[in-house]
Amino acid sequence: MNVIDKALTILAKIPTTQARIVVTIGLTVATGIMYFATAFVPGYEWLGFLALMSGLDVAQFHSKRKTAWTPAVQNGHNEKVNIDEIIDEIEEETTTDNPEIG
């Protein structure tokens, strides 16, 4: 196995989201170092590119890790809580002549 095959194998196994994030952070840090070390002022196109890449990284990271979950069951019950039914029950209790309400 030659060097190119090893490089392609490593590239095939690398997590793409983390690779994108590392590259974007590296480019941003390098731009910041160039800005502070020299009188180089990056163009708006380059800053826009960095902002776009950062936004895409965040979107990809979020979409891969978004969890599809159902709401947690409240009070240890095994059934889902229907908030509309609870509100209706409270409204019925408050509209009837209930001596406890006063």
TrEMBL record:
Q: Which keywords, in A-to-Z order, does the entry hold?
A: Membrane, Transmembrane, Transmembrane helix
- Regions crossing the membrane: 21-40
Q: Please give the name of this protein.
A: Uncharacterized protein
What taxonomic ancestry is recorded?
unclassified sequences, metagenomes, ecological metagenomes
